Amino acid sequence: MRDGIRVLIVCVLAGLLAGCGGGGGSAPLLPAASTGGTGAPTGAATATPAPSTGGTASSTAQAHVITADYLGTPWGSTTVTPAQAAPYLNWAETGLANTNATAAAGIKTMVYMDVNRVQSNDPLYSQLSGSEYEQTCSGAPVTDFFDGVTQYVTNPTSSALRAAYKSYVASVTAGYSVDAIFEDDADPLSQDPSSGYFSSGPPCNYSDTDWIAGEIAMLAGLNVPQIVNGFSRMTSAEPISSTTRLLTNSSTIGGNMESCYVENSSPAEEGSWVWTGTEDTSLLVTNESKYFECWAMDYSSAGSAIPSRLYTLASFLMTYNPTYSILREMYATPSGLHVMPESQLVPTQPVVPQPGAVASLESGDVYVREYRACYYAGALIGQCAMVVNDDTSAHATPALTLSYSHTLVLNGAGILDGGTAAFNGAAPPSTLAGRSAFVALP
């Protein structure tokens, strides 16, 4: 991760013996110690019942959308155990030594690796020589400087690098329950914000096409599936990152979008082409039956970030795929688990089928997606609508197909911290403020 808005991951997998890596770092030789988590945080999420159920669907459905979060050492809560998180969490990014206990609780596991940036205290560094690294036309290594450390950019077209990485992954994951590798810095170098700051210049005769082909070949050789990071590397001219081309690899099961709909700034809400590009990336990825991990990177206190949370939720559910859309949030909570109570809102039976582009969901100057049967914590609450204004100016709320009398109201913090979702809020507003959203209910 090179955005500077993710919490700096300075040690990878375990965060122990091999020292710290940048951009999240590279994988150390030994895994982390176990979490040693203890009692559950106080307070369980509750919901105020909707005024009426409506709809004709079955009375139960999945309890929540697919969720992801850090859990356990080195980056997640060590007071929330896997068993406590399991009712609300599907995917955990965790230290390697925690994977077996996490999997035993029914949670899928991700471990972090970054073969694309290697530094001198990483295990792979001593195994690599010239051809495994990108070089300038004068033969100098291509480096960047992250978090005070010099990093060497590797060359994914190198067969020696592929062999070394394949051997390393097989070695360190042996005996551990690892469902996916979170592969950082998979994006082509031209899309990396640090590409203009490579200290010795760009790689000689570099092309994004060669980089992507090399990444595909390298990841295809691993014994563990991957979720690649780099979907947020987009521009107004290319609002869908070419990192999505890595999904042609059958062992790459999905990708991650940092700063998905919100970021760690004020205001937090993303808009304009960034918002539509995120929605279209979500559609592209999930329509290809791959995971789209939407990482909403607003680190504000969950209890004070209600507008941001509603914007994230409505935007995420705008192009939601129940099988492949993953919601990952970072709002600060007392427990350290970043799963919010609103993740239990699961819409089904969309009035408009899943489109190819979000533009088809635009109504007037805002975006709308309606669902005929929506559930909360598995219980039917009736129809619901996601309404988002990604513009900076206020716009009129368009006429909706179904009938709504209330809106979703959020209070408090996370799902293990007493946070609540209520369905008896005021009627949908006639005007929607800039960069805001609401969820309409019966």
Keywords:
8-stranded parallel β-barrel; single chain; TIM Barrel; 6-stranded antiparallel β-sheet; 23% strand; globular; disordered N terminus; 442 residues; 15% helix; alpha/beta
What can you tell me about this protein's structure?
With 442 residues, this protein is α/β, with parallel strands linked by helices. It has a domain at 65-344: Aldolase class I (TIM Barrel, Alpha-Beta Barrel). 15% of the residues lie in helices and 23% in strands. It has six helices and 22 strands. The protein has helices spanning 82-85, 99-104, 159-173, 208-220, 272-287, 306-318; strands at residues 46-48, 66-70, 91-93, 108-113, 117-118, 143-146, 149-153, 180-183, 226-229, 252-257, 291-296, 325-329, 345-350, 362-363, 366-376, 379-389, 395-396, 406-407, 409-411, 420-422, 431-432, 436-441. The strands form five sheets. The protein has an eight-stranded parallel β-barrel. Strands 13, 14, 15, 16, 18 and 22 form a six-stranded antiparallel sheet that branches. The chain has a three-stranded mixed sheet with strand order 1-20-19, with no helix packed on it. Helix 4 links the parallel strand 8 and strand 9 (226-229). The longest helix is centred in the middle third of the chain and has 16 residues, at 272-287. The protein is globular and about 65 Å long. The model is unreliable at 1-56 (pLDDT under 50).
